[in-house]
Amino acid sequence: MGKSESREHKLLKDVLTVRLKEWFKSPFLHEFQSAGHELDVYGITFEGVKILVEIIWTPSKAQFSNDLNIIQADDADIKIVIVNPDIIEDEKLVRIYEKIRIAEARKGFIWSEMIDGQRILNDMNYLDKYVKDRLFY
After folding, report:
1. Residue-range domains of the chain with CATH
2. What is the 3 state secondary structure string of 42-90?
C-alpha cells in the first residue's frame, strides 16, 4: 500500500484494477511507478491506449493540487479521476479541475469528470453501469 492510504483508497484501487482488467481484457496494475510518481492504477489496452486512474481521497487543496500535478505529468491517453465526495462539493476545486480538464483536452488527453468514490464503494452497480458506460460511450 502506498503512502498512508485510507481503507477506502486501498479498496478503490483494488476494485478498479480488477474491473479495468475485466473490461479491457488487458493488464492493469495498482501502485505503478511512472515519472517518479506512484500511480494508483495504470494499464495499456491491447490497442495501445494508456489509461491511468488516480484516486484523490484527502480533500485538502494541497493534496488535490499535488495529485493533479501527478496526473498532468503522465502521458496516459485517458485519465480517470476518482475523488472523495467532499471534493465534488467544493466549488473552487471543481473549477480548478474543469479548467485543467479543458486545457488537457486541447492537448488530446481525455480526463473523466470527477467520479464520486464513495458512491462506487456503496454501490458496485454504479461502477459497472455509470463509470463503464462513460468509458465505452
Report:
1. 7-132 (3.40.1350)
2. EEECCCCCEEEEEEECCCCHHHHHHHHHHHHHCCCCEEEEEECHHHHCC
Answer for the pair 110, 77: CB distance below 8 angstroms, yes or no: yes
Q: Can you give the pTM of this predicted structure?
A: 0.90
Burial classification of residue 66, based on how many CB atoms lie within 10 Å of its CB (0-12 exposed, 13-18 middle, 19 or more buried): middle
pLDDT of 39 over the 90 cut: no
pLDDT at 22: 92
SS3 133: helix
How far apart CA 51 and CA 20 sit, in angstroms, is 9
Mapped onto helix, strand or coil, the DSSP state of residue 115 is strand
